[in-house]
Amino acid sequence: MERVRAARYALTGPPPDVVACGEILLPPPGPDEVRVRMICAPVNPADLNMLEGKYGEARPLPDTPGNEGLGEVTATGDGVDASLVGRRVLVGSEAWRARGNWSVADLIVVPPGLDDRQACMLRVNPPTAWILLHRFADLDRGAWVAQNAATSGVGRAVIEIAKARGWKTFNMVRRPEAAAGLQALGADVVAVDGPEFAEQSRVLLSGARPQLGLNAVGGASATRLAALLADGSPLVTYGAMSREALKVPNGFLIFRDLVFRGFWLTRWWRGAAAAERAEVYAAVFRLAAAGAFAPRVAAEFPLEEVKDAVAASGLDGKVLLRLGD
Ligand SMILES: NC(=O)c1ccc[n+]([C@@H]2O[C@H](COP(=O)([O-])OP(=O)(O)OC[C@H]3O[C@@H](n4cnc5c(N)ncnc54)[C@H](OP(=O)(O)O)[C@@H]3O)[C@@H](O)[C@H]2O)c1
């Protein structure tokens, strides 16, 4: 057994109160496992929800948080191809630690050439954006997609993927100053969510009706987003940043036949065939290699300062944890 530094939490509650850097004992990698030396990981909203005890699925405690992160394979257990040693991989659980063992089936091998800070954020948000855009509507070239939380990691990936596919994006933001950055990424329209939104959006869309809505906010923002959509279109809810419930006017169902769907990457990962997973991540890595999904890092903290890292998240850009020894 080896002693390894790891973020730990034994209770759920306010993230800076419940998480701390500690130590765990690590056995050698077992059959079908690899040993990974971790490099870096983002602090995502899902990590905070997990620490707060407000995530969709609870894990047994005490636990190590971190729904995604990048590391390098340093050893392999029985039954694992030894040529994986030296390859960088994305882990999908317990990422906030210096080293760990993961089942090889749960890892994604990263192609060479991508920046560490870019790569560590490719397991969750860009594939979510890719699936949201490809699995819920059959969009012709030039079709419009509307989304809220457009400044988020997922929202920015939606803009970049849609641009690459020839789809147009209508993007709702809370902060007017965010518009220029999103337009530089390829956003077609950026509108500030709020009281004047309905009038403004009609003008900006000049009669076009989006055929897909992507909702990561909930509450009144989701209602305003759904109101934009063409009759019969899906509104896919994948996040709830406002923590407010969806409010669906009856007429959206009766007269407009809008379709309310949901998406959770974890459920998709568990149910997807290997070929489907490979298709999604190949598309993500191809776009990343072409310059998409550039890392926007607001602050970096060593693992020892994990309390400060979770307290700092919510900035414009991701907070990153540096994990290596
Ligand atoms: N279902 C899935 O499989 C899945 C996968 C990935 C992500 N997600 C979810 O997608 C959402 C975005 O994740 P991310 O990592 O992309 O986010 P992120 O990069 O950390 O950005 C957070 C976003 O939320 C906005 N926001 C924060 N508080 C808000 C509030 N009270 N009301 C409205 N907007 C608010 C921020 O706007 P400002 O820029 O104005 O601060 C920003 O756009 C989260 O809810 C996350 O859990 C779900």
Describe the structure.
This protein is an alpha/beta fold. The chain folds into two domains: 2-121 and 295-322, Medium-chain alcohol dehydrogenases, catalytic domain (Quinone Oxidoreductase, Chain A, domain 1), CATH 3.90.180; 125-266, 3-Layer(aba) Sandwich (Rossmann fold). It has helices spanning 15-18, 45-52, 116-119, 125-135, 153-165, 179-185, 197-205, 219-228, 250-254, 265-271, 274-289, 306-312; strands at 2-8, 20-26, 33-43, 69-76, 88-91, 99-103, 108-109, 144-147, 168-173, 189-192, 212-215, 234-237, 259-262, 297-302, 318-322. The strands form three sheets. Strands 3, 4, 5, 6, 7, 14 and 15 form a seven-stranded mixed beta sheet that branches. It is globular. The mean pLDDT is 96. Bound molecules: NADP nicotinamide-adenine-dinucleotide phosphate. NADP nicotinamide-adenine-dinucleotide phosphate binds at residues 44-46, 124-125, 128, 149, 151-155, 174-175, 178, 216-217, 238-242, 263-265, 316.
Summarize this structure as a short list of keywords or feature phrases:
325 residues, alpha/beta, Quinone Oxidoreductase, Chain A, domain 1, Rossmann fold, 2 domains, seven-stranded mixed β-sheet, six-stranded parallel β-sheet, globular, binds NADP nicotinamide-adenine-dinucleotide phosphate
